[in-house]
Structure formats: C-alpha cells, structure tokens
Design a protein that fits this description.
The chain is of the alpha/beta class and 229 residues long. It has a single domain, classed as Rossmann fold (3-Layer(aba) Sandwich). 47% of the residues lie in helices and 21% in strands. It has a seven-stranded mixed sheet with strand order 3-2-1-4-5-7-6, sandwiched between helices. Strand 1, helix 4 (59-68) and strand 2 form a beta-alpha-beta unit. The radius of gyration is 17 Å and the shape is globular.
Length: 229
Amino acid sequence: METRAAEVQSLFDRIAPVYDELNNTLSFGQHQIWKLMAVKWAEPKLGDRALDICCGSGDVAALLSDRVGADGTVIGLDFAEDMLDFARQRNLEKKNIQWVPGDALELPLPDAHVDCITMSYGLRNVVDIPKAFEEMYRVLKPGKKVAILDMHRPSNPVIRRFQQWYLDNQVVPAAAKLGFVDEYAYIAPSLDRFPTGDEQVKIAITAGFTKAIHYPIAGGTMGVLVLTK
C-alpha cells in the first residue's frame, strides 16, 4: 500500500505542468462545469472554512475561494508537493487560500474543523477509500457536506466501450505528445478497481455519514458523490 501511494505521489509531481491541459482532453472540455457542480453541492457559504482534498492545480480551491469570500478560508491540500507549488503559483491573487501539504488518509486538521469538503479526481487514486471517508467525516462539522467528483466505469456497455476507445485513442496519445504516456496509461486500470457509485454510498454510510447520494453524469463516465455528516 505504501509503495502504491509513493507511486501516485510521484506521478502527480511529474504531471503537474500539463495536468490542466490533459484534464481538458480527458473530460471533453467539460471538467470545469463538473467541478462547478461539485462546488455547488458542497454548499460553501460566505465566511466558511472549506477544504479541497487532492487539490491538484488549484482550480476547485479557487472556485471555493470565491464562494467563501474574503472572510472565509480555503485549505488546498495535496500530498504531491510539486503539484501544490504549481497551484500556489497560479493562484497568487487568491489571498484566502492556504496551501497545505498533506495526505487524504491522515488529514492534518482537528476534528469538526471545516464547513465543507470537495475532492476532484482524487478518490480513485487513494490507496484506502474507507479510511479517506473516515478522515473526511472526522474533520467535517456536523450537518455539513462533502462533494466528490471522479471518473467512473459506466454500467452501459456501449458507453463503456466508447470510454475505453476514447482513453486509448485520444487521452493516451495526447499525453504521449507531451511525454507522459506511461503516466496516463494508469487511468484504465484505476477505473477497473474503483468502486461503483452504489458501492461508494455504502462505504460512506459505514464511515458514519448520515446521507450519501451518488449522481452519475456524462452517461455515467463521471459522477459526483454528495455526503452529509
């Protein structure tokens, strides 16, 4: 488990400079819309303390920054420090964001510390999903929400075949042009082992959340899991 975590950390450190460009290809140019949906479902309010886990290049943290306002705080957390540095540099104007190195499985925050949590394209890469849910539950205030956006394997076999074709013929070649073919070849196997939306709901309820709903989007190739403590 530790070896896989180190591999994931190294992978995201390497792809930091091209992360946004390849996300655009991966999502048919729609990832910003889906991230806005996740932020909306997390229900950040003015003055809140928001947490974005696996913050990547910082685009969701920036959206949260606008929602919580100058009197609020956003914690952008990632364990890939090169990616975190990239996020910090591209969001210098966002003075209410704190960029914090940290692991989703051991959040460096007190209990009941944040008003909302987002996570985009990160859950699929953690090595212990039940533990990640337990940590989110621990640091979230009672009655507050989590919204998790990620890729999924669709149940529809036609859409599933299209997704695999798109990964093989569009995403990996785009990554290859930038010198990152091996880094993006990991996506298909990561989808194969990723729990379905219904399975994620069960894991989240076991972790203590009182309510869990999974919303499939883009034909089930993506989904947002919304949790309430």
